[in-house]
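Below is a filled-in request sheet from our internal design queue. Each sheet records the structural input a requester submitted and the sequence that came back. We keep these sheets so that new team members can see what a complete request looks like end to end.

REQUESTER: design group, bay 2
PRIORITY: normal
MODE: inverse folding
CHAIN LENGTH: 238
BACKBONE (tokenized):
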């Protein structure tokens, strides 16, 4: 499946912005909040070449998706860190990792809040609204807009945090995040530009959380719990 390329220049600009916010805020003393509408580029304009390309990618994915891909995409509609278990190992289970589960439930709530505000700002229609040729695998809620992809945002926020907890498994973690995000296109729920915006949004949100002292204790507790469960050496930093 084709990976959507990252605009590294835009991303670095966003990360610089986040660093400036943290410094201006006394190192991140307030709870993490990210106004994505002020950071993300606008979605492709209707009838533009970029919008037409977006639609063609969705239609191509729809035509080529297999039964196995459709099943995997439907399973990935669950917004949970434990969707990464196939990349990290069978010991990654919510019943044995309560601190990990609690941290990423908190992450999911923060992501959802930030993305909803941004979706309402752009009000970019879903693929099935743009074209009746699109047949999504599941219905979307009315007025739940397309840009950016909330699942992709969560997937990449999760990936950045997990990669900082488990740097030995960074490659597998980001590969899983890519697949999690691309499944939104397989579902017919999102355009590639939605997924790319989710990649940027999730990275920006995770970067801020890593600097925020109000998240630090929960991050460390989840990291230590997860490393022990995966039989990895204890982290050496605080």
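RETURNED SEQUENCE:
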């Amino acid at each position: 499946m084709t990976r959507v390329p990252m605009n590294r220049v835009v991303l670095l600009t966003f990360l610089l912005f986040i660093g400036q916010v943290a410094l201006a805020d006394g190192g991140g003393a307030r709870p993490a909040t990210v106004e994505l509408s002020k950071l993300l580029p606008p979605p492709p304009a209707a009838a533009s070449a970029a919008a037409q390309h977006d639609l063609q990618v969705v239609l191509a994915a729809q035509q080529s998706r297999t039964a196995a891909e459709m099943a995997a995409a439907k399973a990935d509609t669950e917004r949970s860190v434990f969707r990464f278990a196939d990349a990290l190992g069978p010991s990654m289970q919510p019943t044995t990792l309560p601190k990990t589960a609690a941290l990423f439930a908190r992450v999911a709530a923060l992501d959802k809040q930030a993305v909803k505000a941004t979706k309402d700002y752009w009000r970019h229609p879903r693929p099935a609204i743009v074209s009746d040729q699109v047949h999504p695998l599941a219905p979307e809620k009315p007025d739940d807009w397309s840009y950016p992809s909330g699942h992709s945002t969560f997937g990449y926020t999760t990936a950045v945090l997990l990669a900082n907890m488990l740097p030995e498994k960074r490659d597998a973690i980001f590969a899983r995040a890519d697949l999690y995000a691309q499944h939104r296109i397989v579902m017919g729920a999102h355009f590639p530009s939605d997924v790319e915006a989710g990649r940027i949004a999730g990275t920006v949100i995770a970067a801020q959380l890593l600097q925020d002292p109000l998240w630090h204790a929960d991050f460390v507790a989840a990291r230590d719990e997860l490393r022990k469960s995966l039989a990895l050496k204890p982290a050496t930093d605080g």
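SHEET NOTES:
- The chain has one domain: 46-229.
- Residues 1-6, 8-31 have pLDDT under 50 and may be disordered.
FILED BY: M.R.
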